[in-house]
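Students often ask why we bother encoding 3D structure as a string. The short answer is that it lets us treat folding as translation between two languages. Here is a chain of 696 residues written in the first language.
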Amino acid sequence: MARGLAAARQQEWPLAIKHLTEARKIAPTDPQVAFNLALACDKAGSRELLAITLYRTYLAGAPEAANANQVGQRILELEVQTEAGVAKLIRKIKEMVAALPEGAAMINRDSTDSFLSYAESQMGDFEGALKTAALLADSKSRDTAYWYAASRQVEHGELEDSARTLSKVANKQDSDVQGNISSIYDGIFEGQLSIGNLVGAKEIIAQMPWDNRKTTAYQSLIDALVKVRVFKEATDTVALLPEEKRLSSLKKIARTQWERGDRSGCFQALLLARKVAAGLSDEVKRFEALLDVAEEHRSFRDKAGVLELVEQAKSSVSKIPDDQMRQLSRFCAWAGDLKEAKRLAELIPDTDESRKGKWKWWAYLWIAASQAAAGEKNAARETVAMMMSSFPEVQNDRPGSESFYLANALAAVDLDEQLRLLLAGTAWKIDQMKALSLMNFIYPAQADRDAALQVLRQVKDMALKLSDKGQGLSLLANVAMFCIFNGNTREAQDTMSQALALSLDVPEDKTKDLYLGAISGYQSKLGDVEGAVGTAARIADAERRDYAYRRILEAYVSTGDITKVRSTIGRLSKKDSAGATYYDSMADIHAARKEFKEAAKARLSAKLLRGIPAGFDECKAWSAMADRCLANRVFSDFQGYWEGYTTEHKHMPPGFLIDGLRDSVFEMAKFYRELRNEEKKWQANRSWRQQCLAEK
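And here it is in the second language, the structure alphabet:
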């Protein structure tokens, strides 16, 4: 390095660059070497890109340097200088092309204009890029230039401008550009979706030229609309999907409305789902779809709706499939039509050796559960006893789920001796099994809402008396979940209070963390966000605790409470991901306020942070960029190269000169874009680190 510094003192910049470059090979991440080489390149001129990357290497290695602000200012000046230089060269090439006579040798005007349009897009001069693209005589070249500009506009977050640029593409069916155009539309759509501009996202879908892309996009849009509770728009959008894709979206809308307490809206969505299912032309798919809707009605405790759908499903096929007969039996049993449930169960064949009677076994299990739920314990005991005697293969097919549910059945109907025999050699205790059985066996079969809550209260009382406090905590967490699902907020809150009190007696382990995380989520869902924060703070496992805090973040974002968002971010253990989460949260708040430009900025910052790998070494990254500049001296010495070429090759046809300049300008612009993208990541990372330090 001493030789390089000596040459620099004598202002022998090329010699200084030579010796300092050698010094960098020995100490590639030394900030002082990087700074002196950057200074030499800066003073020598025509090496703006190399000077920028070397200055960045210096700042990354010495972030607290006394001259950091001055170096940052010089980087900004060099960037502007580079932009101006590239723009000047582009104008010069255009002037040279315009001065050529028609049919000039060795010049392809369209090729030159294409490369120049690409270069202008790389530099962010989209107005210039589009004007240049419009000059192209060949329609295919013109289309390519347009989609190239549109793709760069997406990068810059100029989503609406990108869509307008794509609309200029004349032949969107061209196989050479089709995939690129499709990915750009996807990018615009995802960008609009990410900043919460759902109206803009829907408008983009209408412009997409391919149906399969539209379908996927509409499904994503429906999910986003459901997330922000815009149900009418979501339901209207479902009609734009192909018929076979509508059912799942309508079910999602119904479930979300139910969770919000909008029973009317829920069943309206299910009515539409029923119409979609009944309209399917394929007989088997129609039957299965109707049963699918019946399952939704069952989950919302609508006995009449379930029985209607069972009858509709039965009449929709010429022959009921054997493997679906058990489902029909199950639905009838749950809805209280035990006579029909038994009739259907008897129709199930039990001769197939591979199934060992499992289909019929499951049908009778549901019948027994419904009998027990209805208080008909003697009838339930008879059904369970028949199951044990008639299907020994199923009973002994352990450790399958059949044994677990049979154990539930035995416990629920007080067949303690048989339960002990079935569970011989296991660690289960009868009192624990009885509490579990009420939850896992009787409750799902309980069609009456008030009676179901009585079952849950019985489970809650038993959970509090269990000697295994961890098992009691899990039962209480499940009871709370069921109460929330059924809209009984008061009972859910009471149960969670009891669960949190009980958790103090539970040893610290992953299971305890699991249920504390669940309770924190329930509290947040019910609006007790401060309580959710307190519960989350008790979770020992950092990863699970972070997960709980992220759900709390969603609640604060929905209210637009930036102060709470910031404080919750500070509680997260992973600070790099916290930075991205913070910006994502800000984007959600801005989107809720229809501030889409601010949302786009925040979302871009989050994406840039996520683009930085763990253990990101800024100094090495910028050194690698500088090495690339050195390896491509046409960038660092471009102005001298251009002047020398024009001087030494005056005798050459002008087309040679123009082609050489054109290619070099494009590569220079391309590299400048990569450099700026790296800088954005670096700046975003530094900004977040400084913010974290300030908040400490």
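Translate back mentally: The mean pLDDT is 83. Keep this in mind for the problem set.
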